[in-house]
Specification:
It contains three helices and no strands. The chain has 93 residues and is an all-alpha fold. Helix 2 runs antiparallel to helix 3. The radius of gyration is 22 Å and the shape is elongated. The chain starts with 21 loop residues before the first helix and ends with a helix. This is HIG1 domain-containing protein. It holds the Pfam family HIG_1_N.
Length: 93
């Protein structure tokens, strides 16, 4: 029985995007994974609110907001990793 020839070693072609600007790329990436920008906005909002509380001398509330910031950052990282997994699964099909 003859063996089949090996598959070609050429990599699969990458998708070609036209010259897209920052705004177009941002919108495309946001549509692909909408939870990452949401997590970033939550992180920035909680951080800002925590810094304002710290400046006003409300240390208890400031500490609470810094803990909430950590949770928001964790959500953002989880959303980023989840989006990467979904993108990898789509590319395999």
């Amino acid at each position: 029985m003859a063996a089949a020839p090996p598959p070609p070693l050429e990599p699969s072609p990458l998708p070609v995007f036209s010259q897209e600007g920052f705004g177009d790329k941002f919108l495309r990436k946001t549509r692909e994974n909408p939870l990452v920008p949401l997590g970033c906005l939550c992180t920035v909002g909680v951080l800002t609110y925590g810094l304002i509380s710290f400046q006003r001398g409300n240390t208890r509330h400031s500490q609470l907001m810094m803990r909430a910031r950590i949770l928001a950052q964790g959500f953002t990282i989880a959303a980023l990793l989840g989006g990467m997994v979904v993108t990898a699964m789509k590319s395999r099909k």
